[in-house]
């Protein structure tokens, strides 16, 4: 048997509060509307749910039975809605270790300041399993990605401390840290092309490699050496004054950061996060 949901809601409220007037206030409708809904419900069920008097209404035995059922039903609905809402307010991001450590985690407080009701969970690693419940931020070859999925095209340049930068033209031999990717399918870091672009191909250079840009940056800081790496990943260090970008020409690469099948992940809060992230990245 089909019954009106507004009628059931009016009944549940009146039964719980013991008053048509109180139910009307809770539901933001008139007491007459509450009475009308309950009358229609009684007619539909062919039962009397309330005993009415001039001053109050009292549940009948059948009314008490229905009150228990409707109360439990609406509570279950409210619990489900709360769970769904809570899940929607959590953003699950999977990305590379370097991007997580150097870009996302240092800037999360700025995101929380703008969107305090949203929680961001970050999982890092080089192998990322994507599904519709996560935002998979990846580093990949630009030509293999849809332009709609790209959030940042990568440029590379040389970085070091301010003191080390002052000695760049005086050094007889340079030590440069850079990256050999764990993922062998990625294009190589464009170090040789950068050297030629800046007329440095004949300089005495010792190149050392790590499999993540994060490690190269850390080691260059420890040794007062140079690191050839992504401009995206150094923006936090640059802002803090820990690193400086040399006055050399940056070079475009074949790499980009992207979200695979981005349009499939555009829930309301994911959209807010992606918009915020793209704004952060494009400031670098």
TrEMBL record:
Residues 3-60 form the HTH lysR-type domain. Coiled coil: none annotated. InterPro entries: LysR-type_TF_proteobact-type, LysR_HTH_N, WH-like_DNA-bd_sf, WH_DNA-bd_sf. It comes from the Bacteria. Belongs to the LysR transcriptional regulatory family. This is LysR family transcriptional regulator. It comes from Agarivorans gilvus. The gene is y4mQ.
């Amino acid at each position: 048997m089909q019954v009106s949901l507004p009628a059931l809601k009016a009944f549940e409220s009146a039964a719980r509060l013991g008053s048509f007037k109180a139910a009307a206030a809770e539901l933001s409708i008139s007491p007459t509307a509450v009475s009308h809904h309950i009358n229609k419900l009684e007619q539909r069920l062919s039962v009397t749910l309330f005993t009415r008097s001039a001053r109050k209404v009292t549940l009948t035995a059948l009314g008490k039975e229905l009150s228990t059922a409707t109360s439990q039903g609406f509570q279950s609905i409210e619990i489900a809605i709360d769970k769904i809402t809570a899940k929607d307010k959590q953003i699950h991001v999977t990305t590379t270790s370097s991007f997580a450590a150097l870009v996302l985690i240092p800037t999360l407080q700025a995101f929380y300041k703008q969107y305090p009701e949203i929680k961001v969970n970050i999982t890092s690693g080089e192998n990322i399993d994507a599904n519709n419940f996560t935002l998979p931020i990846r580093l990949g070859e630009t030509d293999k990605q849809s332009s709609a999925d790209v959030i940042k095209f990568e440029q590379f340049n040389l970085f070091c401390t301010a003191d080390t930068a002052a000695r760049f033209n005086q050094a007889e031999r340079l030590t440069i840290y850079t990256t050999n990717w764990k993922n062998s399918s990625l294009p190589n870091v464009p170090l040789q092309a950068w050297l030629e672009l800046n007329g440095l191909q004949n300089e005495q250079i010792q190149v050392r490699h790590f499999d993540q840009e994060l490690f190269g940056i850390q080691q260059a800081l420890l040794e007062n050496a140079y690191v050839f790496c992504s401009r995206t990943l150094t923006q936090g260090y640059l802002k803090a004054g820990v690193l400086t970008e040399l006055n050399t020409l940056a070079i475009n690469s074949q790499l980009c950061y992207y979200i695979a099948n981005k349009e499939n992940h555009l829930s309301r809060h994911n959209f807010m996060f992606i918009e915020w992230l793209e704004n952060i990245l494009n400031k670098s």
